[in-house]
Amino acid sequence: MIGVLLNEMEIKEMQYLLKREMDEILFDLKDERIDLIVKRGMEERYKHLFTLFKRVAAPKDCLRYMRNTHKISKAANRYKKDQKSY
To answer: Model pTM greater than 0.85?
Structure first.
């Protein structure tokens, strides 16, 4: 395990960077032109970023970024079924 010692300013900057990155991913996930396989990768990245965010943010801030991944996994399963039929 690796530990990190951050002061208040660095924590705020870390929160800002993580929020910005997560907002960008959330925006891109709504884009229907992006392939489901790519969206699955974006979901994985989002999970990692959210895990980091939970360590530096207040619980109230975390609520805004919690996601229900059920929608993506359902769509991915449909995509897999469609691919097998070809």
So the answer is: no
